[in-house]
Amino acid sequence: MCRLSPQCTDNRRRIVAEAGPVQAVGIEVWFGSSEGLAEEGVVRVALPQDGTIFCTWAMSLSEEFLIERIGVCSPEKLHELDVAMELAGA
Length: 90
Hints:
Structural class: alpha+beta
Mean pLDDT: 75
Order of helices and strands: HEEH
Number of helices: 2
Strand content: 5-15%
Radius of gyration: 20 Å
Number of strands: 2
Low-confidence stretches: none
């Protein structure tokens, strides 16, 4: 077992350097108590990639299905969502 010796650190750097660039596949926008929700949740937005088609779906609800307001998004949270959707090309 390696205990953070200089040799061990150098090997880790080489492995990471040879792994190549990391490409993000999506963005997560977290929601929870700061929005007035009882439980934490997340909205995941997939980012476009060449040669890849993501299976996605969206749902729109009319006012008749919205029974009770359970939270409110701050302007900062709405901006997070707007940026995620813009990066996704939506």
